[in-house]
Specification:
about 120 residues, mainly alpha, DNA Methylase, Chain A, domain 2, 3-stranded mixed beta sheet, 4 helices, about 35% helix, extended
Length: about 120
């Protein structure tokens, strides 16, 4: 199971005195910073209690996660960054995670632009 792999990885690092962490955000929790690259997706796990069908959609080894824990989707990352729902993500998930993780939050760009316009006019 994916989660068990993360737990074992954390234990191995802790036994060596290294840091490695992941955090699972509950339904009513506050999201972490969007992290991409390396082990980034493991830091963006959420509990989704809406999951009821645990049938794998691809061939996997091992048991299926039945705890409702999953990684966030690119759309959820886009939402956290302030992109509108109609924003099209035209790339693969792997590229979307990288691009959204490297993005500046849309509301921040809008606020800075408004202040610049004020100074110019």
């Amino acid at each position: 199971m994916y989660l068990r792999t993360l737990e074992n990885h954390r234990k191995r690092h802790e036994s060596k005195g290294n840091g490695f962490g992941y955090e699972i955000i509950p339904d009513d929790g506050v999201a972490n910073a969007v992290v991409c690259g390396g082990m980034g997706r493991e830091r963006n796990l959420v509990i989704d209690n809406r999951l009821v069908d645990f049938t794998p959609v691809i061939n996997i080894k091992g048991e299926v996660n039945r705890q409702g824990i999953r990684k966030m989707t690119p759309r959820e990352w886009a939402n956290l960054q302030g992109f509108p729902e109609e924003f099209v993500i035209p790339v693969t998930d792997a590229f979307a995670y990288k691009q959204l993780g490297n993005s500046v939050a849309v509301p921040v760009v809008e606020a800075v632009a408004k202040e610049i316009i004020k100074l110019i006019t």
